[in-house]
Amino acid sequence: MLPVARAADNNRTMRGWFVDEACTRGRVAQGRIEPDNPECAKRCVKQGSKLMFMSETDKALFEVRESDSQIKNIGYYVEVNGTTDSGKMLMVSAVKQLAEVGNMCLRPKLKNK
């Protein structure tokens, strides 16, 4: 009998935020690891943006497998237990909400004339 080939999964615990890809990928590329506006993130995910996990631990984004069950965690700083693969895919097994993130606007403030 031949051994079954298996992807190398990595069991991990990470801290960070569930965010939407459209608003977050550019910020992470610039090294800005910070939460999204929760209302904006929920709206973007509903409109088709991928739900991602921004890992403060890794300073990286992970695509969330079976993401519908994690939408309720947008707006919280969380600790996630799960597995990741080499393609930065996260399969969540448990989430602990650590703190609520308030609404914020990331747009630059207008200068007074």
TL;DR of this structure?
The chain is an alpha+beta fold. The chain has helices at 21-29, 38-46; strands spanning 10-20, 51-55, 60-64, 76-84, 89-100. The protein starts with 9 loop residues before the first strand and ends in a 13-residue tail after the last strand.
**Roughly what percent helix?**
10-25%
Separate helix tally: 2
Major beta sheet summary: 5 strands, mixed, barrel
Low-confidence stretches: 1-7, 106-110
Could you tell me the radius of gyration in angstroms? Answer: 16 Å
Mean pLDDT over all positions: 84
Question: What are the secondary-structure elements, in order, as H or E?
Answer: EHHEEEE
The side-by-side strand order for the widest beta sheet comes to 1-2-3-5-4
CATH class membership:
Mainly Beta
Which structural class should the secondary elements be placed in?
A: alpha+beta
Strand count: 5
CATH topology: OB fold (Dihydrolipoamide Acetyltransferase, E2P)
The 3D shape can be described as: globular
User: Structurally, how many domains make up the residues?
Assistant: 1
